[in-house]
Amino acid sequence: MAKLRSAKPLLQVADGGEMAAYLARPAGKARGGVLLFQEAFGVTGHIRGLADRLAGEGYLALAPELFHRSAPAGFEGSYDNFPAVMAHVQKLTVEGLEADIRAAYEHLAAELPGRPIAALGFCMGGRVAYIAAGAVPLAAAVSYYGGGIEALLDRAPRLRCPLLLFWGGLDRHITADKRRAVSDALTAAKADFVEVLWARADHAFNNDERPSYNAAAARQAEALRQAFFTEYLR
Length: 234
Hints:
alpha/beta; Rossmann fold
């Protein structure tokens, strides 16, 4: 069996900066590409493992380091020191994220001419996947418990692809009123979206390195994510 290959390219961003990334390449010809957007803790081993899993499914997966303006390349925060990573989260801007999204998209598009590209993001990255769905011509986007989407509802009419949203019912960060606001805005914009709520799952239920991991919810969400990509990344 051929081995997957990984690399760490440097991407040129429109504002003149360089952004490191983790690139996982499938053993054979890629069926499409996936922009994989990090949690607030950086492109951690968990995120790199997800990229490798996507490569195992046949996708060229690219996980850009979104804190490149405020943290050194390879930055990984600690799960038990959230204030330290918030210092980087708070320095992000929508304009900067859009520039990062375009740089990452263009890198994949250059390698995959004519093939579909999707976005997949977790927590902070779930919000970035939502932004990406309106910023570049994606085939699909998936957001796991994307915090802060409710502050970007004016972007709902910009969505250019089907969007799949995963929520945890026990998530104290993304409460029912915030989820409802997102759903109402997407409905009003006539967006093509699906949302799934696990009543007994918490924030970060997909991350098996954190106490909030919920194996059943993670397995079910993964199956739905795979089906969503199979449907739209033909």
